[in-house]
Amino acid sequence: MVKTNTQHFSKEFLKQIQENLLKEKARLENDLSKFAKVDQNAPGGFTSAFPDYGDKDDENAAEVADYEVRLSLEESLEKLLRDVNQALDRLTAGVYGICKYCKKPIEEKRLAARPYSSACMECKKTIKQEA
Known about the structure:
- This protein has helices at about 10-35, 55-95, 110-115, 120-130; strands at about 35-40, 45-50.
- It is mainly alpha-helical and about 130 residues long.
- The longest helix is centred in the middle third of the chain and has 37 residues, at about 55-95.
- This is Zinc finger DksA/TraR C4-type domain-containing protein.
- Keywords: Coiled coil, Metal-binding, Zinc, Zinc-finger.
């Protein structure tokens, strides 16, 4: 259930955000399950399966290449899934939509486009310039 006691957004907006986040979470978990298994030793983590195409040199090379692609994709999807889960946690805690840097409300347009955002546009721009 979404708390709204400290929110700057309508209940309807927050409900839509929650639905979008839950759909995105399901999609990410489904995508990850196609080539990785849940890692029991790392909460929220996955482990990519090493492909087995055969014993020939070209098959072994293809296995290594595909595994590298899987690891990169796994890392990207896991990061996005972690962001989605953290956004859902912020919704539950009643602190969703507050920038983690300046503590001001994040723009509604930004949250509608990227519901797992944890920073306002001003802070995000500053961070990107520093990187």
